[in-house]
Amino acid sequence: MSDICGSQAAARSMQQLAREFSACRDMLVALGNENRQLIFVALLEHPGGVRVGDLAKLARLSHSRLRTISRFCRTQASSIIISRERRTFTTQALASTVGRSSLA
Fold first, then answer.
1. Which contiguous run of DSSP H or E holds residue 82?
2. In whole angstroms, what is the distance from residue 55 CA to residue 47 CA?
3. 14, HSE (Cβ side, Cα atoms, 13 Å)
4. b or e along 76-88 (b: 16 or more beta carbons within 10 Å of the residue's beta carbon)?
5. Which candidate, 38, 75, 76, 97, has a CA 20 to 30 Å from the CA of 67?
6. What is the rounded CA–CA span in Å between residue 81 and residue 93?
7. Are 65 and 56 in contact, with CB atoms under 8 Å apart?
8. Each residue of 34-93: pLDDT tens digit?
9. What sign has the CA pseudo-torsion 63, 65, 66, 67?
């Protein structure tokens, strides 16, 4: 009986995980490569916002990548991930995707 209950609990957990994963798909696609992940982590570590030049240093990316970083931030500024104020990028509120209150 305990094996059946354990199997059912595991199946429910996997179904819940599948729902949560599906809810995060857009964010996961946006952060699909390592450089994007480094940029996002740097933004999370500096919730007050970061300029693109400083973001390159924080994410340990070369200055030759500034155009790529800027394009990524501008593209994501229209999504749920990054917001843009003047010349500084910050993370958006991620309450619906990662269960936190506002990070911006």
1. strand 82-85
2. 12
3. 6
4. beeebbbbeeeeb
5. 97
6. 8
7. yes
8. 888 888 888 888 888 888 888 888 888 888 888 888 888 877 776 656 667 666 666 654
9. positive
